[in-house]
Specification:
Distance between the termini: 44 Å
CATH architecture: Alpha-Beta Barrel
Largest sheet: 8 strands, parallel, barrel
CATH superfamily: Aldolase class I
Radius of gyration: 19 Å
Number of domains: 1
Structural class: alpha/beta
Order of helices and strands: HEHEHEHEHEHHEHEHEHHHH
Number of strands: 8
Helix content: 40-55%
Bound molecules: 2-(acetylamino)-2-deoxy-D-mannose
CATH topology: TIM Barrel
Shape: globular
Length: 314
């Protein structure tokens, strides 16, 4: 029965989800009008999955009330896109409150990093996920495995124990360990396996991920969709050419700082009103990075040409 439930959840969750940014105004308050515009932009790229309030969404820098308000706006703006709400927090109480909010809003799934800062024993971490599951009241959970940022590294056995908890639908695997990706795909074929590093999406899909969650899908979602289509259609070389084009953009983002860089590009493209990130994340002042300006201008031109094409054809 659990397996049938996994399969049903997998249908909507095994896809490419944008790790949605959370736009701010000049005072670092969340801008809900810009958030709506960003959702429309990402949907316009063809992306039909949204991962809300994760690392990219700066969720851990927001209060619980702000995180719930963000879930509400996205629930309202997302149309028929699949929605995953990131509820991970340093305290189980906050994570549970966020999970209850997502469940009440009809999110397709909740997702959570392990509890950070305090070095917990593995059974305490398991307990944290169990508590989130009870708060989520039937909404499936995607474990967010991101050892480089959480400081928690899970062995294959640890991940297996988490995947066996009733209600855990899968894993967002943000790790360069492609061996572990394949091991997970092989041991848990009915679970949702989402690739976390965009620069390795092609490798992740080739090693068994059924989809991905990515920050750079906010600007390159159409390219990643095309890439996944090429791989599925038996054209790995064409897929790799697209991954390489995306990685040239990611190289510049990494140089500038990925989240500030993405907001900078979206601001220059006219999608969001400011490039502001919540401190201590950095903000890049407009027109201070020639490489990102060129990327933004190229994307804006290509996407407006694609939009015009659609209008002419439609
Ligand atoms: O959610 C993102 N993970 C982190 C996924 O930011 C930690 C990725 O999309 C990366 O931002 C991206 C660039 O390294 O792969």
């Amino acid at each position: 029965m659990e397996e049938a439930r996994d399969r049903a959840a997998g249908g909507r969750l095994s896809r490419l989800h944008a790790a949605l940014m959370t736009p701010c105004d000049a005072e670092e308050n969340i801008s809900h009008p810009c958030l709506r515009r960003l959702v429309a932009h990402v949907r316009g790229l063809g992306i039909d999955g949204l991962y809300v309030g994760g690392s990219t969404g700066e969720g851990l820098l927001h209060s619980v009330a702000e995180r719930i308000a963000t879930f509400e706006t996205v629930a309202d703006a997302a149309g028929d896109a699949a929605r995953i709400g990131h509820v991970g927090a340093i305290s189980t109480r906050d994570a549970s409150a966020l999970a209850r909010a997502c469940a009440a809003l009809g999110y397709d799934a909740v997702s959570a990093i392990p509890p950070i800062y305090f070095p917990h024993r593995k059974d305490a971490i398991l307990g944290y996920y169990q508590d989130i599951l009870s708060a989520a009241a039937g909404t499936p959970l995607i474990v967010y495995n991101i050892p480089a940022m959480s400081g928690v590294s899970f062995s294959l056995d640890d991940l297996g124990r988490l995947l066996e908890l009733p209600g855990v639908a899968g894993i967002k695997q943000t790790s360069a360990d492609m061996y572990q990706m394949e091991q997970l795909a092989r041991a848990f074929p009915h679970k949702v396996l989402l690739n976390g590093y965009d620069e390795m999406l092609l490798a992740g899909l080739a090693m068994g991920a059924g989809g991905g969650v990515g920050s750079t899908y906010n600007i390159l979602g159409d390219a990643y969709l095309e890439m996944a289509g090429m791989l599925a259609g038996g054209r790995p070389d064409a897929a790799r050419a697209i991954q390489s084009r995306c990685n040239a953009v990611i190289d510049e983002l990494v140089r500038a700082g990925v989240f500030p860089g993405l907001k900078y590009i979206l601001h220059r493209m006219g999608v969001i009103a400011t490039p502001v990130c919540r401190r201590p994340l950095a903000t890049l002042a407009p027109a201070t990075c020639a490489a990102l300006d060129r990327i933004a201008d190229r994307l804006a031109a290509a996407q407006s040409a694609a939009g015009d094409g659609k209008e002419t054809r439609g």
